[in-house]
């Protein structure tokens, strides 16, 4: 409180009726409409001081003041890796952002959610990241039940803090279930059943798929696989193109993880026993085969969809490209390979899992994506990416991406992907030889 009171004597925030000549002069100055300094004389403030002031402003009563401070914090975390500030103020920033989520407007909740996600990506794996997850999951869950306008950012935040801070499969499952309840509430749940908007459905599917990339598929119930696959297949028939694209990416990931095959194997393996049990298992097996056929036909149709009147050409092109890649994967087992230049070096993906992780984090970081890819060690590990400046400093890249995933801390977020990654490589090798769908379908 002493630090906060002392700072209040020297600064005034957004809403104050300050002298019009008040200003802050610095190459990294927080925008004048977000944070200003009292007095007619310009004051030089370093980046840490500006962040300290923004943090202090989160205690203010006026929501617009807190919103401006959160926007300043987000700008700072996007433009530089704020390790020194985080080391000193980690707990304070986390709890003030959570307070904003509990009492703020929809705009404030969205900004606070974004800030917490950036905080998690900055601290990386470890005890602090796990604390962020455990402290955030209940406030985020409660906010999702009653706040539709900020749901998108809340979902992205929950996904990011779970991705970075989760140590056990149960923690990822917990977050995925919170997301799932928004679009697929069960009877008796505390979720208010209502029609979700297209942006919320898209955000749920994208966040759910992002966390699925961290899961060992053997820990998932085969019956859950069937429920989710049926739901995503239904989404492919929705009018909204963003929903179809998100559902398509998620189904591609599920097939990469052999989710439907696991349900089929369970049905085939349970045919022993009574005649009634055998009949039920055969019905389930037939249902799975029918679902496969349905999805294949949906993918073929969406890969060649003609644009209608008023259709957005860019979105239509994105959909066609995605489902063409999906169709190639289903028929021949080839995953799409992508490559993008960052600071002179190539960032590459070769699996659906990596592509979904890249797209999600790129979208979440927005303007801060390039900076984080250049300087964030966590992202370097996730994507096996070596920035040029690190290479020039003598840090040679001696291990392949798969080897890096095998050689890591047991508590690392990447440890959860080890078995999944190896299974995918074996599956892809097999698929290239025999084709992904090992059954006959009449065209």
Automatic annotation (TrEMBL):
SUPFAM superfamilies: ARM repeat. Residues 1-28 are annotated as: Disordered. Residues 376-429 form the Interferon-related developmental regulator C-terminal domain. This is Interferon-related developmental regulator N-terminal domain-containing protein. Residues 25-331 form the Interferon-related developmental regulator N-terminal domain. Belongs to the IFRD family. It holds the Pfam family IFRD.
